[in-house]
Write a structure and sequence with these properties.
By secondary structure, this protein is α+β, with helices and mostly antiparallel strands. Helices cover about 15% and strands about 25% of the residues. A hairpin with a 4-residue loop joins β9 and β10. It holds the Pfam family BURP.
Length: about 300
């Protein structure tokens, strides 16, 4: 796909656009920015891992082999059982080496606004037509866009602001904890068949917050909550090549208000309201829930 990026985050388009065509940038644009906390000007421009298959979502295809592998994160509750083998795409982005959220004081010292983009580009030494500039513009535009029906959204620029938003959704006095997908083995394989070995936990989630990474010179999380019945699961997966993954799954039980053009319906061959829609979370995305009483979870 070269440098002609689509306008926003593919993962957000998959999980929360409900047909809004503005949310279609490949998730791998996050790799444009590898900024250590100590220096905001140290930005990697390595884009060799951005693949041409992200240029268009081939969800209209009639066979699974014709569907963009990056769309292979969806399934239904009927398919969700131990022993089930399915193709899954997990973008490989190590949370340990990903850009970290800045302290609130440092993040608040910079404007986070689309109308201040020229100033920000000068600050980070990016030319207006650079891939990084386009990625920053997409992120700022997405963060300033209106939420979809039933959605409450917020772009967190610091850990403190993420927690504050989470508490406004789940409860100001409620203890919360975060969950994330964890790869037990190191592998460069991003797409393969996985078998569900165990459903480790199942959590009813009438209130939850999902936070997705956004491309920016420092860590930005698009956090949102939707008014619908959800369930959160942690499962143990075994890849065909031996990869073991503790994967987080969210299942949306009521899809009746979703747009008929939502890509998950095209991938699964279902229609709004006729089926639940479940999806896997990449490793550096977070799910916030009320703190569980039982132990044994891989909370962060």
């Amino acid at each position: 796909m070269g440098l002609n990026f689509m306008p926003c985050i593919l993962f957000l388009h998959l999980l929360c656009s409900y047909g809004a065509q503005s949310r279609e940038l490949a998730e791998t644009e996050n790799k444009l920015f590898e900024v250590p906390l100590e220096g905001v000007h140290k930005v990697s421009t390595n884009i060799q891992d951005i693949h041409h298959e992200h240029a268009h979502a081939h969800a209209h295809a009639h066979t699974m082999t014709d569907i963009d592998p990056s769309l292979m994160v969806f399934f239904t509750l009927k398919q969700f059982k131990v022993g089930k083998r399915m193709p899954i795409h997990f973008p490989k982005r190590d949370p340990a080496t990903s850009p970290k959220l800045w302290p609130k004081e440092q993040a608040d010292s910079l404007p986070f606004s689309l109308n201040r983009l020229p100033y920000l580009l000068k600050l980070f030494s990016f030319s207006p037509n650079s891939p990084q500039a386009r990625a920053m513009q997409s992120t700022l535009s997405e963060c300033e866009s209106k939420p979809i029906k039933g959605e409450v959204k917020f772009c967190a620029t610091s850990y403190e602001s993420m927690l504050d938003f989470t508490h406004t959704i789940i409860g100001l006095k409620t203890e919360v904890q975060s969950f994330a997908t964890f790869h037990q083995s190191k592998s460069s394989v991003t797409f393969q068949n996985y078998t569900i070995l165990e459903i480790v936990m199942a959590i009813p989630a009438p209130k939850m917050v999902a936070c997705h990474t956004m491309p920016y010179p420092y860590a930005i999380f698009y956090c949102h909550s939707q008014e619908s019945g959800n369930r959160v699961y942690k499962v143990l997966l075994d890849g065909d090549n031996g990869d073991k993954v503790e994967a987080m799954v969210v299942c949306h039980l009521d899809t009746s208000q979703w747009s008929p053009t939502h890509v998950s319906f095209q991938v699964l061959g279902v229609t709004p309201g006729s089926s639940s829609v479940c999806h896997f979370f990449p490793a550096d995305h977070l799910i916030w829930l009320p703190k569980l009483q039982a132990h044994g979870s891989s909370s962060m």
